[in-house]
Specification:
The chain has helices at residues 2-69, 71-101. By secondary structure, it is mainly α. α1 (2-69) crosses α2. The chain is elongated.
């Protein structure tokens, strides 16, 4: 009877080891696939970022060329943007102070 129990336990342990090996191999394959997909996503994001950087650089050159050709207009635009930023800052600051005083 004890020998039968040992034999049964040995078989069960052997089957569990085989199942663990199958699970381990399956998980390894899934991890490998995930790593490959992550690498592909990284490569695609890098290509897209390079394209965006190239387009931004091209636009910056266009703006620079226009500013060189029309310096008075460029100064007027820059001043207008600065004034709008200042006005927005003052308005936001006033709202913030008003909000603090109402407490």
């Amino acid at each position: 009877m004890a020998d039968d129990l040992r034999t049964d336990l040995s078989k069960q342990i052997s089957e569990l080891r085989k199942e663990m090996d199958r699970i381990s191999k399956s998980m390894s394959a899934h991890v490998s696939d995930a790593v490959g997909q992550a690498g592909d996503l990284r490569d695609e994001a890098s290509r897209q970022a390079a394209g965006v950087i190239h387009r931004v650089r091209d636009q910056a050159h266009v703006v620079s060329d226009v500013a060189r050709e029309n310096p008075a207009t460029a100064i007027t635009v820059a001043t207008s943007i600065g004034m709008l930023g200042l006005a927005a800052g003052v308005a936001i600051g006033a709202l913030f102070v008003r909000g603090l005083n109402s407490r």
